[in-house]
Amino acid sequence: MTQPLRILVIQHDPARADMLTDALRQAGETEVMVLPSDSRLASRIKELGPDLVLIDLANPSRDALEELTLASSPADRPVAMFVDRSDPALTRAAVEAGVSAYVVDGIRPDRIRAVLDAALARFHMFQKLRTELDATRAALEQRKIIDRAKGVLMRARGISEDEAYALMRRAAMERGRKIADVAAAIVTASELLQ
Amino acid sequence: MTPALEIGFMPLVDAAPLIVARDMGFAAQERLDLVLHRAGNWSMLRDLLDLGRVQAAHMLSPMPVARALGLGGAGPGVETLMVLSMNGQVVGVSPDLARDMRAAGPDLGFGDAVATSQALRSARPDGLRLGVPFPFSMHAELLGYWLGPQVTLATVPPPDMAAAIGAGDIEAFCVGEPWGSQAVELGAAELILPGAAIWSQAPEKVLAVRAGWAEENADLTGRLMRAVWRAGQWLSLPQNAPLASEILSEPDRLGVDPEIIDRALTGQLLTRRGGELIRAPALLEFHHGAANFPWRSQAAWIAGRMARRFGLDLRRAAEAAQAIWRSDLYRQHLADLAILPAASSKLEGACPVPQAVGATRASLILSENRFFDGLIFDPSADN
């Protein structure tokens, strides 16, 4: 069973908001919230925590969403746009560029979920890439610290690189800690002793 | 056949050179058909340019710089062909805050940046939430420079500024006309300072294109730049202000009463509802003092402020920004029309009175250029 998708629609025109809400609800497992366009948008979105924000391409409050995106926290969420008139070239170009997903107004209810799912999938893909990049960076940092700790041990004890690494691994296992933590402790201690 | 160019703009008085270039026939004179698209927000305008839906756009001067600095998401490079307008921002406060400021001191007038900031500080010692139109805007940079990093900036679209201050979401704002005057008209705000009092030569809006477009379309670029330049010259003549206000007031342009647009174009503002019109010199400039020339030092100043705000390397930021500020293209395409300065970079803030400088022909008088605190920005130094 899929989790209901929590979608926030930003639309100040009640008639249009209703139309979109109906289409989204018909599309299936969806919880729809509606906010009028307003200047407190950023804090409201944080409170509501939707999976996806749907906003007019031309909506003035989109700039406030940009500010939110700029703050770029992990809580970032995908923003899909819907455009007034069907502009196939613009829509295709936008989706290909990965700027956002553009949902064309008047879309058939049976198509809307697919478009939104695509927007979410794209977002999660980018987020995964970003997480992987962060993990790679962290791993690199750890490698550097382990190398420095090895150097400290090699000089202090007159042992080989392999022996230094084995020593750290044993210390980590005995204390139930990670090698990187042991290495960081050695580096810190050596800096204090200098 | 007359080629067509799609241009995006935001509903602001400083979009006038683009609107006038089309409606007063300066584009047609260059055998160019301008198709204008009004955008609902700055992000949309940027996306339309990125996606090739428009070929050129009216942009906040820091927007192309932000792209060059890798801020606010990736995308194709954007370049600045020319400056469309100088200054034009106004700072407004809620009637409550205005009353508290008056209670604390004498009448501040309209233009004393130092006294006004002191009055703001003493009226709101615990800080202040100010609305700006976009995270990357001259408004945000000027406020940060003037009031320091303590103030909280919130993004509020220009047409919503009056409603936001009326609802108490913000207590003050910096916005481009006519939206400051509109807020005054609705009784939601009083104007306390023109942007020009913070920096008297702040490049406000620019004409932006995608990187490489101007080289691929050199002929079109030249025609577009000349049409816009002539529109700026036309706008600088006082007798044209009434007609310009009418043109801009059309529903598919700004959709605001011509009387309110008139204020920015004539430099006469109403600072509060029911008050008197006051003269605000250098409020908004489209032409005089080489206003359209994209000085690389302007890009360096913007980049420097942004680098501080977002923790980037100052020197690298300045270099990246200057590279997309195309004074070379301006020289190439406007040599026959405009008087070109001999240099492409200058000391910003070092011109307390109008000054003649070296130029290609005749002489060029640059307008007063000073920062409120008297500092001088040298783009070749690590500021």
UniProtKB/TrEMBL annotation, chain A:
Highest taxon of source: Bacteria
UniProt xrefs under InterPro entries: ANTAR (IPR005561), CheY-like_superfamily (IPR011006), Sig_transdc_resp-reg_antiterm (IPR008327), Sig_transdc_resp-reg_receiver (IPR001789), WH-like_DNA-bd_sf (IPR036388)
SUPFAM superfamilies noted in UniProt: CheY-like
Domain Response regulatory: 6-120
PROSITE patterns xref list: ANTAR (PS50921), RESPONSE_REGULATORY (PS50110)
GO terms (BP aspect): phosphorelay signal transduction system
Domain named ANTAR: residues: 126-187
Positions of post-translational 4-aspartylphosphate modification: 56
Any one GO molecular-function label of the UniProt entry: RNA binding
Alphabetized UniProt keyword annotations: Phosphoprotein
Name of the molecule in the record: Two-component system response regulator
Species, as recorded: Paracoccus zhejiangensis
